[in-house]
TrEMBL record:
Main subcellular location of this protein, as a coarse class: membrane
Family: Belongs to the GntP permease family.
Annotated localization: Cell membrane
Name of this chain's protein: Gnt-I system high-affinity gluconate transporter
Organism this protein belongs to: Arcicella aurantiaca
Length: 437
């Protein structure tokens, strides 16, 4: 009966978001309250559980997500992302232009949130389409595959970062494993799959072909690459340093401090403020305006993550979470496959990769403790599942459809299949690394 109750509550969450068109944060709160009542949590404790769940979830994430949004904003506004794109185009040339777009999307996708990266890269894709007279979907999908994989697999993006905190995983190791898995997922879901889509007729709307900055206003190549990728460099460096510093307590403490995600993002943002802002003549007031806008852009994402924390806490308080974990543990599946599957089901039902990942985390968390599964790989398994088969209930589906001016059939054939491929390849990559450990 307990399992039926929790499935009904998850179903209520899905219906509130999809059929009722209710904001996911409000939907999480309503579903959490209903779940608490149905599963016997004392009424006087439900409000406290919601507060604790939201506080625990956001306590370690608000800094990372907010600073990540600010970094992405200045990378975009300064023209650093455009500079990276133009350099990659020059390196790969016309024959391998789609590979250049893949690399560009991946590099830009690390510091930028998905929607920001999507809108930023669309003018570049369409300008290349017009210049080389190549099919828009064939050129555009590989770059967007890179953005999507970075969004689902790699911290400091909201869902992976939240999963890292939820499972007490190491963010640096998660990033390293994520990069190893992301590369084959992007290659197969992007350039390889895109070769089957050359015949899709796409005539991008002129209104979406935005103007780009003139070359003389762009930052230098070195500045653009180093500043955009600084979080990756810092996380990778401190992860390696931690392994080397096992016997040196002072060095270990220093690497732990510098490697903390919040410190990494703060250092990266301070550097970007100077290299992409002040040193290029942008006033501090204007830079702070960028940062204020960036936080507004992610405020709802932060609330949604908090709402997921509220549901997680209700599951913990009721004891259902442990019961589910015990049942899932006895299933004849690898726990990593279970995590992927649960996330995939919720993704297909709800549409949001972030909601799918965070909801799954609340269900799967006790199983991670009980089974001793590698927490970094569980983060990536759930992240992979959260990308599975984007369709009409996903805003990303409509972004792609409208920007590329496609029919729903062609959008399903291209975008939805690409998301499914990267999800499945991600799962296979997780299982391969797990088998090698």
């Amino acid at each position: 009966m307990t399992l039926i109750t929790i499935f009904l509550c998850i179903g209520l969450l899905v219906l509130l978001i999809t059929w009722g068109k209710i904001n996911p944060f409000l939907a999480f709160l309503i579903a959490s309250i209903v779940a608490g009542i149905c599963m016997g949590v004392p009424l006087a404790n439900i409000g406290k559980s919601l507060q604790k769940g939201i506080g625990d979830m956001l306590g370690s994430l608000v800094i990372v997500i907010s600073l990540g949004a600010m970094l992405g904003k200045i990378v975009a506004e300064s023209g650093a992302a455009q500079k990276i794109a133009s350099v990659m185009m020059g390196i790969f040339g016309k024959k391998y232009i789609h590979w250049g777009l893949v690399c560009t999307g991946f590099i830009i996708g690390i510091p930028l949130f998905y929607n920001v990266g999507f809108v930023l890269m669309i003018p570049l894709i369409f300008s290349v389409v017009n210049q080389y007279k190549l099919p828009a979907v064939y050129l555009g999908l590989p770059m967007l595959a890179s953005l999507s994989v970075a969004h689902g697999f790699l911290p400091p993006h909201p869902s992976p970062a939240a999963l890292v905190a939820q499972f007490n995983a190491n963010m640096g190791l998660t990033l390293i494993y994520g990069l190893a898995i992301a590369i084959p997922a992007i290659i197969l879901g992007g350039p390889v799959f895109a070769t089957t889509l050359k015949k899709i007729d796409s005539k991008p709307l002129e209104s979406f072909q935005n103007e780009t900055l003139p070359n003389e206003q762009l930052p230098s190549t070195l500045n653009s690459f180093l500043t955009s990728l600084l979080p990756v460099f810092l996380l990778g460096f401190t992860t390696v340093l931690t392994f080397q510093a096992k016997e040196n307590e002072s060095l270990k403490a220093f690497s732990s401090f510098i490697g903390d995600p919040a410190i990494v993002m703060l250092i990266s943002l301070i550097v970007a403020t100077f290299t992409l802002g002040l040193n290029r003549g942008v006033s501090m007031k204007k830079i702070m305006g960028f940062y204020s806008d960036a936080v507004k852009d992610v405020s709802m994402i932060i609330l949604i993550i908090g709402g997921a924390g509220a549901l997680k806490q209700i599951l913990i308080e009721s004891g259902v979470s442990d019961e589910i974990a015990g049942i899932l543990k006895d299933l004849p599946f690898n726990p990593l496959i279970t995590g992927w599957f649960v996330a995939a089901i919720i993704r297909v039902c709800v549409g949001s990769a972030t909601v799918a990942g965070l909801t799954t985390a609340g269900i799967i968390a006790p199983m991670v403790i009980q089974t001793g599964v590698n927490p970094e790989l569980m983060v990536l398994a759930i992240g992979s599942g959260s990308l599975m088969f984007s369709h009409v209930n996903d805003p990303g589906f409509w972004l792609f459809k409208e920007y590329f001016n496609l029919s729903i059939k062609d959008t399903l054939r291209s975008w939805s299949m690409m998301e499914s491929i990267v999800s499945l390849v991600g799962l296979l990559g997780v299982l391969f690394i797990n088998a090698m450990m």
